[in-house]
Every structure is written in C-alpha cells, then in structure tokens.
Amino acid sequence: QVQLVESGGGLVQPGGSLRLSCVGSGFTFSNYPIWWYRQAPGKERELVASVSVTGSSTIYADSVKGRFTVSRDNAKNTVYLQMNSLTPEDTAVYYCYFIDYWGQGTQVTVSS
Q1: How far apart are CA 96 and CA 9, in angstroms?
Q2: Is the dihedral of CA 93, 94, 98, 101 positive or negative?
Q3: Mode of pairing for the β-strands spanning 10-12 and 106-110
Q4: What does the pLDDT read at residue 86?
Q5: Which residues, including other chains, have CB under 8 Å from residue 100's CB and lie 6 or more apart?
Q6: CB count, 10 Å around CB of 101?
Q7: CA nearest to 99, candidates 15, 21, 19, 24
C-alpha cells in the first residue's frame, strides 16, 4: 500500500523556520521525484517545490525561492522541506505528492 506521511508542521512566528518531512512507503521511493504542494484557506492547491530522484535537481515556486529548500534522503525514504523566513502568506496545509498519491497534509500556521 502506497503511503506518503507528512510531519513537522505547526505554529511559528513570522520570520521563523520549520522543517517538514515526508516519508514514503509501499513503493520504491528512490525511483520517483517528489513534489510539495500547499493549499491555503479559500485558495487552490499550488506547487511549492519538487526534487528529482537523486536530489540533484530542484524546482521552486517564485514565492518561496531563496527561503525554502527541498532535499531528500533515499536511505530513509524521506523528503524534507526546510522553510525559513516564514510569513503569514505561507500559512497553508502542506502536502507531498507523486504520480497519483497525496499525503494527508500537515498544517503550517505563521502568526504572531
């Protein structure tokens, strides 16, 4: 059974940092690129970042470039999203995704 499980969300003050994790199981994790998406209340789900199978290639949305870093550890079947300099506009549920599979999401709230 394919599963993606996100963790690491929470409440953080503006300017703060969080690191999200996405653990995959039930498939050969190292064979697939992984995407991070987010969905804010009342908005459509949007792409945040993606990482290639080896981690050597990454893509970022313009809104997070220079602040977020995506990486992966295939030995741990895990993809990370390091988020720095967070703003209230980053408040959303964050999901990891590959092919047709979504995780359950983890809530990130940026507020003072």
Answers
A1: 13
A2: negative
A3: parallel
A4: 98
A5: none
A6: 15
A7: 24
Beta strands in the chain (DSSP E): 3-7, 10-12, 18-25, 34-39, 46-51, 58-60, 68-73, 78-83, 92-98, 101-102, 106-110
Say what percent of the chain tops pLDDT 70.
100
Return d(Cα 43, Cα 55) in angstroms, integer. Answer: 29
CB atoms within 10 A of CB 72: 22
CA separation, residue 61 to residues 58, 74, 76, 84 (Å)? 10, 23, 26, 14
Q: What is the mean pLDDT of residues 61-67?
A: 98
